[in-house]
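In the previous chapter we treated chains in isolation. Here, by contrast, the input contains two separate entities that must be folded as one system, with a combined length of 390 residues.
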Amino acid sequence: MEIPIAPMPSRYIPHSKVEEIATACNKAYRSKCNNSQGYPVDVEAFIDLCLFKSIIYDDIEEPDGTIVFASYSQENDGIITINDRHRALFEKRPDILRSCIGHEAGHCILRHHEHDSFDENTLSLFSMDKPKLQRFHRSSWSQYGLTPDEIIQFKRQVEQLRQLAAISEPARRMLEQIEDRLEPDWMFRQAEHFSMCLLIPADQLSELITEIRFDSWPPIYRLAETFGVSISMMRVRLEKLNMLKIGSDGKPYPDSKLLQQSLF
Amino acid sequence: MSFGKTLQRIRRSKGKTQREIANKIEMDYSYFSRLENDRFESKPTRETIDKITEALDCTEEERGELLAAAGRIDEDIENAAKIASERPELKRLFRKVIELSPEQINKIEKLIQEEQAKAKAKRKKV
């Protein structure tokens, strides 16, 4: 099975489409990397031998108060850099490493680097000068090197734009550009969803869970371990597939009504 | 093509990951990844290249490619160059031979083989 070509990047691409692409990628991985069951995914092998992108473990500078696990860049035909500063964590928690690399693979496959907001002519935050094009995933303001005063100024400007956006097309466009450049939540969410679907292929998951009753945490932990993912990723996957719900008491409950109508 | 790109190409053609090869030659996997991405100013040593080619089960041609990409030459040629540097007649011969066409070189090779055969036959008689 071939790696599919994703549509042009857009916030309007539904998660069902992202899942479809990730499923095709997992199948390509199975045949190319001799892993017939498709889990746990050796994501480095997937990046290297299926996507033909380079991988490097290197130091990534982290602005104060931030954590950068990995990044993707289009240089040299595509390279995923994994921050060697967190090696000890990655060796202790391979599930974290796996999901980080899967996330960057998502950015690559979903062609986020081709999005309009990477256009050099995009307006900068505070002036009409050409912006420094750099993206961070999280909404932590300090990641952008903004001082507290700048954050206050910026929030005021965004608030003004929000008020104008309802009646002014240029204000609406600028607001969109700012939100895209600073905090592309839709890109982050798409990449996260891709990673989850790649690492926990739905067809294999459905085979494994037929005998499992999700009324306690241990089976969910075991499932997470089987797929080599974190408990939080497995929980989200099961919830999104309507296999599970978490009660107000924090305990898991099988969603028995919806089990019958599951996506499988 | 750079050493890193050559290594990457050969490694991928064998279906091996960076980690597999790094583990096999007992090299730190992050170091191997940097080697493959040409992050070091100096090229790997012959010893390192030999370990990598053995782990990858490279053909002689692939080994030669890696050595060339690293600016190293085949050991045989390196030894021959050392000997030639100590014998001026070999240096002269080498300078002339490199200007010849492949057909002319083949003719000279045959002449050399004939001379070697004659010398061998003479030694047997003695």
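The interface with chain A takes residues 8, 12, 15, 17-19, 29-30, 33-34, 36-37, 39 of chain B (CB under 8 Å). Chain B has a mean pLDDT of 89. Compare these points with the single-chain example from earlier in the chapter.
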